[in-house]
Amino acid sequence: MKNKHISKEMYACLKRYWGYEQFRPWQEDAILAILDERETLTILPTGGGKSLCFQLPAMLKDGMAVVISPLISLMKDQVDGLKDMGISAECLNSSQGPAQQSSVIGRIRNQEVKLLYISPERLLTQETIELLRSTDLSFFVIDEAHCISHWGHDFRDEYRHLGAIKDNFPGINIHAFTATATKEVQADILTQLRFDSPQLNIASVDRPNLAYRVMPRSNIISQITGVLEKHPKEAGIIYCLRRSDVDDISGRLNKLGFKNLPYHAGLSDVERHLNQDQFIREEVNIIVATVAFGMGIDRKDIRFVIHAAMPKSIEHYHQETGRAGRDGLPSYCYMFYGGGDFGVWNFFSKQSANRDVMLNKLRIMYNFCTQPQCRHKVFVNYFGQEYGQSTCQACDYCLGEVDMVDDPVGVGQKILNCIDSVKCGDDRSFGAGYVANVLKGNPTSQIARWGHQGNPNFAAMSSETLASIRYSIEQLIGQGYLSRQGEYDTLFLTDQGKRLLNGEITPILAKPLVAARKKEISIRQKARKAQDWAGGFGYGFGNRKPNHGPVANRKPNHGPLACVDEKLFELLREKRAELARKQGVPAYIIFGDRSLKDMASVKPTTSEAFFGVFGVGEHKLKIYAKPFIDVIKQYSKKLPSAISPFLKKY
Ligand code: ADP
Q1: Which tens digit of pLDDT belongs to each residue from 111-150?
Q2: More confident site: 574 or 646
Q3: CA gap 299, 470 in Å, rounded
Q4: Which of 44, 154, 301, 450 could disulfide-pair with 48, CB 3.0 to 4.6 Å?
Q5: CA–centroid distance, residue 24 to ligand 1 (Å)
Q6: Ligand 1: residues within 6 Å at CB?
């Protein structure tokens, strides 16, 4: 009975402030545990909705919740977002002037604040401890809790002292949140924060609303522009390996009319911040960046992420692509990798104390690129979870965009035989380019010098293109049948390669795509995208708890997004941008794309109908119903046929 009552209150609060009707997977579990006075560690993927897990119980409990967050730059946006929902939130940090700080302190003393955002270093000053002790606290939240761990990729020294919360505030619960799921990080968080029998809420790492496509790099600019043409007016990040690549690609895209800004550590602080800010504030939609770009980007409508080179690990790829589609809407990740990327990362890894670990991660990453398989499944399995579906319908492999070699064992054996037969002794071998020429039967001067025209494997694959032979060799390397060694990256058979020669195992080999097939796939991708937006893959997050069992089937959701009026959507976006500019906040704080799409589909013209729009809570209803309804009415007046069949019916 008690639980039923709490559940009712939770749903009422969800609609009242956030304007949402349903919780996402794990949110209810996390919230109930907090309300039940159990300490929690909650791991949800980026975009999984972590903030709501602590913001909602903060509203239901007496006192003020204190949120420790590592990025001062994000605090203001988060607090502005909460205020825009009618929640009294504040932050305390060094970017505020003395007058502003004392006004916040006054409000805390008067018990007028429900959520306080603060940096870890500020929290543990004597002054703050005394301030917080003088008021009623509900609980502490450690956001981005992986920063506490040396094993995490963003370790922060200041986070190391957070164990002291228990000494200074005995009896007040702590709740930790992160998107980083590795076991070492989890264990470290629990020990460092001195948790006592916490509840663990660990979601699947799968991001069903992301579609992954991984392709070998050829002409990178035309590959990138091909993607950009599929995403006009949409926001995206293009990740490059080096700063010089950023400058080059950014410059060339700008010349071609794809307006973008660069971002890397070589730019001045001012320029970097300026570029990041323009992206967050939607003044520019495309950013070309090194991996330095990302932490602190809270923009929810990033629709695509392009990797112009291979990232150095699956963790990095997952994190970087994870910045797309935080609003839960279909979003797209494209990677263009090259064999050379492995070499570059390998070179960087030489400076690392952890070289063996890095190299192993790099090999797994290269395998991910070169082995055609369901991309979602690889991610989920990599993080030690089970993927219960046979097809995701949201990656190049499952969507049939990869053409497989008919006789992979035969092709693999021809290549391995050739490598074995051209080598002299145990340590003199040849590189991929040379081997490909022997197999193609190209009588190059080098081949003549080594007398390999007479080799039995010379021209053994003469009917294939040189590019196709090279592609198969790269895949055999990536899948562990061959290893590249020494200064000249020469090729050697591994034990697994020997098993392939004996016919014991089968490699998974794809063919390179010819131009006509590429064109056909590109047309299919466009059609697929339209279908996704009409309620296809991964729309919303469904009801899945994969670590409690296999992932449930993707259910197509033919919701109202199926009839979005794109012209009206554009007008609503303009209105949103205008209001955001006036208020000095990022546009997503006012409404996410999903809310605007909902409006552009249902076309509400009364306050009552507007309250039914996704993401409209009581406060937003009060301040935004009029300006957005006005846009809808004006549009419908000009175009009477635009009135939704949905509304005509009711
Ligand atoms: P995370 O911190 O896990 O990356 P956020 O807390 O930023 O994710 O949430 C991502 C987006 O999802 C936000 O726009 C948030 O308002 C939205 N969201 C959270 N919970 C829900 C829900 N139950 N229904 C719909 N949208 C939600």
Answers
A1: 999 999 999 989 989 999 999 999 999 999 999 998 898 7
A2: 574
A3: 40
A4: 44
A5: 8
A6: 20, 22-24, 27, 44, 46-52, 300, 326-328, 592
